């Protein structure tokens, strides 16, 4: 039944100005609220100190807790995975990144890259061996694709695998690998005589090392490593049997980028909420700065882009749940939402003035984290070219 003209309108909600909660099911909201409570309890009280010190202490405990929430490999089915909808996984990413991008990256790399690769392309034996323990957080995974000299062009990778009898022998380097030094298993992509192949590598294999990368000014509360493979010998069944070529790693990246579409809006929301509260309470010239037109214009513009971005993420999530989400549409979402999230953080910083650079507020931390999110799993330029090719039918990558 449609509403009559005399029906009272619901009150305006500054936290949900478009009424997007109406699009969610009760189960969607329950998932979102559970993750939000966990982040508020386990991350927010400590994250400023972790970021300042450049560490993520207790990562294995955090992984187990996230596993108990069903947040690892959340949208995968079977093998101890939650089998949640794409929208529910997206909402979880939003809440995790509202706490910190490093926490969302931990979950995204574990579930959308390492676990997804094994779930989609692995043998039944590989799935049974690794996925239940990864879903519970007992085993942390990482994903080795990017190399020191090959980021946007993975086809040029130098890491290679050669046959030696029935074994594989891997040599090479991977760079900027989240979870690398704490992982128990790595999914490593290497060039072979038969094209690019994926390998499931236990990290205690001789010849494998993962030195941690320090001196970062972004994603400081995240474990980032190099992977070093020196004559790493693996049995024949370490190779992922169901894929050859770059289609494998690129499909994993598309799945992970989807989480970024949501997660970036979490960082934006946290920054916007900090700016809004500050504008309501900070007084200059005899009244709260939120009462000045220029500040209200900034808040209005930020709110428009924030909630448009969440609506875009929701739309892409429903397409994924329906099996209709194309990689180009994921590029659309990542390109738009991360760019707008960074702008929201920067504008929020101007409202907070000098206080905006302090870790007492989350704004500068989110802004610097998003500088990494902007370029990992596809730079701005790569996503522009993906969309440009889709729009024109002309390949401009080379």
TrEMBL record:
The organism's superkingdom is given as Bacteria
One GO molecular function term?
fatty-acyl-CoA binding
Residue ranges occupied by any Acyl-CoA dehydrogenase/oxidase C-terminal domain in the UniProt entry: 244-391
- Write the protein's name: Acyl-CoA dehydrogenase
Q: Give every Acyl-CoA dehydrogenase/oxidase N-terminal domain span.
A: 25-138
- Ranges of residues in domain Acyl-CoA oxidase/dehydrogenase middle: 142-232
Note the InterPro entries from the entry. Acyl-CoA_Oxase/DH_mid-dom, Acyl-CoA_Oxase/DH_mid-dom_sf, AcylCo_DH-like_C, AcylCo_DH/oxidase_C, AcylCoA_DH/ox_N, AcylCoA_DH/ox_N_sf, AcylCoA_DH/oxidase_NM_dom_sf, Glutaryl-CoA_DH_mitochondrial
Gene Ontology biological-process annotations: fatty acid beta-oxidation using acyl-CoA dehydrogenase; fatty-acyl-CoA biosynthetic process
Q: Which UniProt keywords apply?
A: FAD, Flavoprotein, Oxidoreductase, Transit peptide
Family classification:
Belongs to the acyl-CoA dehydrogenase family.
**Which cofactors are named for this entry?**
FAD
Which organism does this record belong to?
Answer: Streptomyces benahoarensis
């Amino acid at each position: 039944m449609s509403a009559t003209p005399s029906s009272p309108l619901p009150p305006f909600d500054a936290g949900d100005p478009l009424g997007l909660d109406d699009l969610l099911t009760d189960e969607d909201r329950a998932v979102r609220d559970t993750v939000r409570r966990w982040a508020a309890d386990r991350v927010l009280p400590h994250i400023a100190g972790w970021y300042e010190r450049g560490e993520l202490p207790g990562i294995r405990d955090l992984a187990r807790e996230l596993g108990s929430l069903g947040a690892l490999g959340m949208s995968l089915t079977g093998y101890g995975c939650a089998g949640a909808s794409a929208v529910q996984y997206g909402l979880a990413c939003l809440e995790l990144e509202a706490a910190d991008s490093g926490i969302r990256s931990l979950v995204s790399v574990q579930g959308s890259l390492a676990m997804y690769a094994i779930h989609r392309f692995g043998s039944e034996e590989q799935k049974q061996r690794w996925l239940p323990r990864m879903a519970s957080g007992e085993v942390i995974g990482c994903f080795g694709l990017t190399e020191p000299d090959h980021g946007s062009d993975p086809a040029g990778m130098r890491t290679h695998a050669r046959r030696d009898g029935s074994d594989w022998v891997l040599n090479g380097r991977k760079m900027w690998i989240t979870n690398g030094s704490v992982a128990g298993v790595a999914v490593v992509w290497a060039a072979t005589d038969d094209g690019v192949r994926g390998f499931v590598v236990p990290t205690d294999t001789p010849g494998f090392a993962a030195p941690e990368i320090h001196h970062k000014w972004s994603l400081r509360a995240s474990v980032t490593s190099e992977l070093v493979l020196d004559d790493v010998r693996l049995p024949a069944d370490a190779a992922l049997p169901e894929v050859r070529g770059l289609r494998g790693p690129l499909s994993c990246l598309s799945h992970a980028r989807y989480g970024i579409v949501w997660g970036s809006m979490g960082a934006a929301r946290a920054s916007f909420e900090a700016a809004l509260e500050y504008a309501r309470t900070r007084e200059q010239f005899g009244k709260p700065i939120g009462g000045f037109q220029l500040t209200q214009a900034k808040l209005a513009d930020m709110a428009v882009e924030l909630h448009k971005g969440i609506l875009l993420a929701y739309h892409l999530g429903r397409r994924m749940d329906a099996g209709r989400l194309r990689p180009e549409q994921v590029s659309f979402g990542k390109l738009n939402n991360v760019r707008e999230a960074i702008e929201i953080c920067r504008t929020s910083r101007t409202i907070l003035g000098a206080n905006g650079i302090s870790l007492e507020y989350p704004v500068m931390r989110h802004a610097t984290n998003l500088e990494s999110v902007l370029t990992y799993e596809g730079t701005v330029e790569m996503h522009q070219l993906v969309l440009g090719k889709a729009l024109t039918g002309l390949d401009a990558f080379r």
